[in-house]
Design a protein that fits this description.
- The complex is a heterodimer of chains A (264) and B (277).
- Helix content of chain A is 78%, strand content 0%.
- Chain A has 264 residues and is mostly helical.
- The longest helix of chain A has 32 residues.
- Chain B is of the alpha/beta class and 277 residues long.
- Helices cover 32% and strands 22% of the residues of chain B.
- A 6-stranded mixed sheet of chain B has the order 6-7-8-3-9-10, sandwiched between helices.
- In chain B, strand 9 and strand 10 form a beta hairpin.
- In chain B, helix 4 packs across helix 5, helix 5 runs parallel beside helix 6 and helix 7 crosses helix 9.
- Chain B is globular, with a radius of gyration of 19 Å.
- Classes of the chains: A mainly alpha (264), B alpha/beta (277).
- At the A-B interface, helix 7 and helix 8 of A face strand 6 and helix 3 of B.
Chain lengths: 264, 277
C-alpha cells in the first residue's frame, strides 16, 4: 500500500503514478485530438464540471449516500448469512450433501437477473437492491468458509480431541480461526460484488442511488453525468474493498506479510 | 509379554490389541488388519521405543493409546484403567508440529491446558516455565511462522508437557528436522523425560534414536503388525543420548535391530516378514 524502501517497489509505484497522469491527460486531450465528439467521450474537465453541477443540483451526495447504505447493508447481511450457512453446512456433512445441488443451482443462476423480480415483490424501495447484494455476496463467503472447514488438518482436530476438547472447543479454537483467511478472501470478492448487485437493482427500478443517476443521465443524453456516476461507483467499490483489507490486516496480523492478499 | 518388576506400577499397557480397518473399496481383500494381538506394557518412568517397517501399525497403536481410536479387540490401559476415549493423562506429539498460526508461542503452549480448563494464571505460569526450560522465553510473543523448524518442534514438545501427562506418546517427533537439530531435540527430550520422570512411548524409524533414548525397544513386523522382538538397552545415561551414542554397545543394539528389521538384506524387500507367511 505504501511504497517501501525496496527499490523495485518504489519503481513500481512511480510507474503507476506516471500511468495515472498519462491516463488523465489522454482523457482530457485525447478525444479532441482524435475528433471524438464530447457527447461520446467528454473530456476530463467537462466531467469535473458536471461533477460540481451534479453535486449542487442533482443531489449527487444523496444518491451516493443511498448507494453506500445499500452496499453496506447488502454486504454485511450477505456476509453474515454466507458465513453462518457456511459454518452450518461445514459442521453437518449430511446437510451439505442434501443442499449442495440446490446451492450449486442458485450459484450458477445469474444473481442480477433476480433484480426485476425483487422489484416486483418489494417495489421501488431500497430493499430489492439490498436483497440482490445479499444474494450476490452470500456465495463467495459461504463457499470459502465451507471449503475452509472441509480442509482443516485432521491431525489438528485429533490434537484437540486428544486434549479432551469438546465439539464446541474444536470449533472455536481451531475451525473458526482456521477459516479466517479464506473467509476474508471471500469478503474481498463480496465487497466489490455488492456494488454490482446494488447498481443493477438501481438500474432496474427506483428514483434514487447512483445506478438511478446513471439511467437518468443516459435518458438525458448527459454523457458527463454517466461518467460522474461511474467514477462515484468505482470509488464506492474501492472504499468497500479497502475497508475489508484494513480489517483483514488487523484480524490476520499473525500471517507473514507475503501471505496477506490484496496488495495495493 | 514383558514381566516388569512388580514394585514399579504400569503406566501404559496394551492387552492383546488387534485393529482391523474396513477395506476402503480398493483391493477387495476385505478388512485390513493393522495390528494383531499386540501386548506390552510400559512401566512408570520408562521410555520405550517402537520400531518397525512403514505401515506396520505403529501409529495405530499410538492412536489407540491416546483414545482417538478404539481397538477391534483387546484394550489399552493407562494407570490400570481401560482407555475409553481421549483423557487428560495422555498427550501425543507428531512429526508435524501442529502449531496454530494465529496463536503466539506462549498461547500455543497453553493450548492443551486451556482446553482442559486449567485457570489462566496457572497455565501462563506453566507456559513460562516450559519456555524458559527450552530456551524459548524470548520468543513467547512470537508467532510460529517466525520460528525455525527445530524451535517449532520444541514448542510442540512444551505444549505436550504443559498438560503434565502421565504418558507421552511420540510419533516420529523429530523426523522432519535436520540431523543436528534432531540431536539437540533428542537431548532436550531425554533430559526432560528423565527430570520429570515421565513415561513415554516413542515411535521412530531412526534406530540410533530408538536405542539412545530408550530403556527398551520393541520391534514390530510388517502388517499385520505383531511384536517380534524386545530389546532392553543396558547402557547407562538415558538422559544423555549424545554421550550414550558413543558407547560401543549401542552399535551392537543397532546391528541387532537392523537384523530384526531385515534392513541388512534390503534387496529382499518383497519377502514376507517372519511369522506372517
Amino acid at each position: 500500500m505504501k511504497p517501501g524502501g525496496d527499490p523495485s517497489m518504489r519503481k513500481g509505484a512511480g510507474a503507476s503514478l506516471a500511468l495515472l497522469v498519462f491516463f488523465l491527460a489522454a482523457w482530457e486531450w485525447g478525444p479532441q485530438a482524435l475528433g471524438v465528439p464530447s457527447f461520446i467521450v467528454p473530456p476530463l474537465s467537462t466531467v469535473a464540471t458536471e461533477f460540481v453541477h451534479a453535486f449542487q443540483f442533482d443531489h449527487l451526495l444523496l444518491h451516493t449516500g443511498v448507494t453506500i447504505g445499500e452496499v453496506l447493508a447488502g454486504f454485511v447481511l450477505g456476509s453474515l448469512l454466507g458465513a453462518f450457512v457456511g459454518y452450518l453446512l461445514g459442521m453437518s456433512p449430511a446437510a451439505e450433501l442434501a443442499l449442495s445441488p440446490y446451492i450449486l443451482a442458485l450459484q450458477i443462476a445469474p444473481k442480477v437477473a433476480f433484480a426485476p423480480l425483487f422489484i416486483l415483490w418489494m417495489g421501488f424501495t431500497v430493499y430489492p437492491k439490498i436483497l440482490v447484494a445479499i444474494l450476490i455476496v452470500f456465495f463467495p463467503v459461504m463457499v470459502n468458509v465451507l471449503t475452509a472447514l472441509r480442509n482443516v488438518d485432521p491431525d489438528l482436530i485429533n490434537l484437540a480431541r486428544a486434549f479432551t476438547a469438546t465439539r464446541a472447543q474444536i470449533f472455536w479454537k481451531i475451525e473458526f480461526p482456521n477459516s479466517m483467511p479464506p473467509m476474508f478472501a471471500g469478503l474481498r470478492i463480496g465487497a466489490t460484488l455488492a456494488v454490482v448487485g446494488v447498481v443493477v437493482g438501481e438500474l432496474v427500478g427506483g428514483n434514487v442511488g447512483l445506478g438511478y443517476l446513471l439511467t437518468f443521465g443516459e435518458g438525458q443524453a448527459n454523457t458527463p453525468l454517466v461518467f460522474v456516476s461511474i467514477v462515484m461507483l468505482t470509488l464506492v467499490g474501492g472504499i468497500a474493498y479497502l475497508a475489508v483489507i484494513l480489517v483483514e490486516r488487523r484480524v490476520l496480523h499473525y500471517l507473514p506479510k507475503r501471505e496477506l492478499g490484496g496488495e495495493l | 509379554m514383558p514381566s516388569p518388576s512388580a514394585s514399579v506400577p504400569l503406566r501404559l499397557e496394551y492387552r492383546d490389541v488387534t485393529m482391523r480397518f474396513a477395506d476402503r473399496g480398493g483391493s477387495g481383500s476385505g478388512a485390513l488388519t493393522a495390528v494383531r494381538g499386540v501386548s506390552f506394557a510400559v512401566r512408570d518412568g520408562e521410555v520405550v521405543s517402537l520400531i518397525g517397517p512403514s505401515g506396520c501399525g505403529k501409529s495405530t497403536l499410538l492412536n489407540i493409546g491416546s483414545g482417538l481410536m478404539a481397538p477391534s479387540k483387546g484394550a489399552a490401559l493407562v494407570d490400570g484403567a481401560p482407555v475409553a476415549g481421549p483423557n487428560a493423562h495422555v498427550a501425543f506429539m507428531l512429526q508435524k508440529d501442529l502449531l496454530l498460526p494465529w496463536r503466539t508461542v506462549a498461547q500455543n503452549v497453553m493450548f492443551g491446558v486451556e482446553i482442559q480448563g486449567v485457570p489462566a494464571p496457572d497455565r501462563r505460569q506453566r507456559a513460562a516455565n516450559l519456555l524458559e526450560q527450552f530456551n524459548l522465553a524470548e520468543f513467547s510473543d512470537a508467532y510460529p511462522h517466525q520460528l525455525s523448524g527445530g524451535m517449532r518442534q520444541r514448542v510442540a514438545l512444551a505444549r505436550t508437557l504443559a498438560v503434565d501427562p502421565h504418558v507421552l506418546l511420540l510419533d516420529e517427533p523429530f523426523s522432519a528436522v535436520d540431523a543436528q537439530t534432531r540431536m539437540s531435540l533428542q537431548r532436550d527430550l531425554a533430559q526432560t523425560l528423565a527430570r520429570a520422570q515421565k513415561t513415554a512411548l516413542l515411535i521412530t524409524h531412526d534406530l540410533f534414536e530408538a536405542v539412545t533414548l530408550s530403556d527398551r525397544v520393541l520391534v514390530m513386523s510388517r502388517r499385520p503388525g505383531v511384536i517380534i522382538d524386545e530389546i532392553a538397552i543396558d547402557v547407562p545415561g538415558r538422559d544423555d543420548p549424545i554421550g550414550r551414542r558413543a558407547d560401543p554397545r549401542v552399535a551392537g543394539y543397532v546391528a541387532r535391530l537392523m537384523d530384526r528389521l531385515d534392513i541388512a538384506h534390503a534387496p529382499r524387500e518383497r519377502q514376507p516378514a517372519a511369522g506372517s507367511a
